[in-house]
Specification:
93% of the residues lie in helices and 0% in strands. The chain is mainly alpha-helical.
C-alpha cells in the first residue's frame, strides 16, 4: 500500500507548509501596525487558510496511517 503512503506524506507536507505560511503572515500582520478593522480582516483570511491547511494535513496523515495499517 505504498501508493497511499507517499501521496499521504506529500499532502501532509503541503498542509504543514500552509500552516507555516499562516504563522509567517500572522507575524507580518502583527508587525505592520494596522488598525483594528484591517487587522481583523487580514486575520480572518489567515485563520481560514490555517484551518484549511490543518484539514489537509489531517487528511494526509490519515492516508499514511491507512497505508501503514493495510501494508
Amino acid at each position: 500500500m505504498s501508493f497511499v503512503i507517499w501521496p499521504g506524506a506529500a499532502i501532509s507536507f503541503l498542509g504543514l507548509c500552509g500552516i507555516i505560511w499562516c504563522i509567517v503572515q500572522a507575524m507580518k500582520a502583527r508587525k505592520s501596525g494596522l488598525d483594528d478593522e484591517a487587522m481583523r480582516k487580514r486575520l480572518q483570511t489567515i485563520v481560514t487558510v490555517n484551518l484549511s491547511a490543518l484539514a489537509l494535513s489531517g487528511i494526509g496523515l490519515m492516508m499514511v496511517v491507512v497505508g501503514v495499517i493495510l501494508s
